[in-house]
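Two records follow; treat each independently.
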Amino acid sequence: MRRLPPLAALRAFEAAARRLSFKDAAEELGVTPTAVSHQIRRLEEGLGVALFVRGPRQVALTPKGEALLPPLRRAFDAMAEAAEEARRRPSRRVATLSATVAFTAKLLVPKAARFREINPDWDLRLHAADGVVDLAAGEADAAIRYGIGPRPGLVGSPLMTDLFAPLASPRLGLSSPADLAHAPLIHFDWRVGAKSTTPTWRAWGEAAGVSGGDWQAGVTFNDEASAIQAAVAGQGAALLSRVLVASELASGLLVQPFGPELAGFAYEFVCPEGAGDRPAVAALRRWIEAEVAPGRQPPSDLV
């Protein structure tokens, strides 16, 4: 813990010692010469030493005063420079966007660098969580939501709709639905929408007209990102969002050996009611609409 004399007393001494005049120091500090004299006397009493030799028309520094002036002058110069730097430096503004772990990892992170190019005066904070954050409480400025709602207190604009398809590593060599009988199935737990309308292997089997399969067997993950990673690693076939795995499909890490595809839900950019014109929300919307979801639909090879 620092034991410092009063700052006002140190300022009065530094100004008077630099100018060798209580009157000139008073003019610099915007106080009276009497106030300067009082502050210096207070400092001397606190230190237990004399800092000035006082004459009828002028003052001079004692050896203790001469020793004290240089470090004090450097300290006040440093404080003045720091304050000026703070005034010159523009304050950074931070925009926070919340999305699921999978959406953040697959679509937002690869485009994060472009946020600063589109919004030079802003920094980006990505909040990845599969739970719903409270936008009204300020946990984030906006969010990417998926599913059918409702979303009381929020307004949203659609970004893209989703399609789900059976996807796997090409190393598995799947070519027809019959091959699924010999390949592990990968599942993940849904937390959005009505359970009866979420894309599942059982729903896919019904749409494909494939009967007799054990659609519950396999490996289940509690998040989509892990299911995608498992499919890329060749651990089985997964019913995955083509929106989220577009890069893996383009690179050949995953393939869609057959159909059909199941309709998913819509992704929406949401913010609290009345917050659409807030600068942070506008910055996030510019980035999302330009880079992440510029009016696109999910890619599909099989129609």
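The next record belongs to a different protein.
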Amino acid sequence: MDITVWEFLVLAAASALVGFSKTAVSGANTVSLAIFAAVLPARESTGVLLPLLIVGDILAVITYRRHAHWPTLWRLFPAVAAGVVLGTAYMAWAGDAAIRNSIGAILLLMAGVTLWRRRAGAEEALPAPDTSRVKARSYGVLGGFTTMVANAGGPVMSLYLLSAGFRKLGFLGTSAWFFLIVNTSKVPFSVGLGLIDARSLLLDAMLALFVIPGAFIGKGCVHRIDQVLFERLVIGATILGGLQLLLR
């Protein structure tokens, strides 16, 4: 890909943020998504970003693998699979502007719903993760769709895990396994759509070197972030990412 040195440095910083988001503040990689879409064509940027997300997922699983809540994951996967199929069909004909606007609107809607429920007192801490089937299916389809269309499933699933009452480590462990499995399963679809090829993988090989230090920085920071601040950062990153997609 024909990019300048400055553009590569910007992508490198966004790649480090991918690693940080996977081990500290899930949802923060929406900023990376917006940066990649600004430097590269929006559609092609999703194919470059996906392998970097998988590298971050592997590092997150290594760090938090013991904290996953597997009943929640098994409940989500069928709905997520349906969302990925819908997202693949949408990407087959949608243009860059339609993709950005759709994902941005969904992210802001989900953040708004979460904030409204918290203000109404519906988001009090739960003694155990709430895994209602209706909620899991709704968020699962949205998560699958957004992760396939723009690698933006992180904020949707973050809002689901927060609304379900997950604490910090359970949140990170469940999210780590979820995205490792889902992002890996997206690779054949992305290759079929022409989003991943030899050129994009060459760029990924260079940018992956920056994901690793970002993940270690996140691991060192996560225990210094209290639960309330953690949740505010996740929601704030979701709103920021949605606005960036809509306003670009």
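Discussion point: Residues 122-131 have pLDDT under 50 and may be disordered. How would you locate this feature using only the token line?
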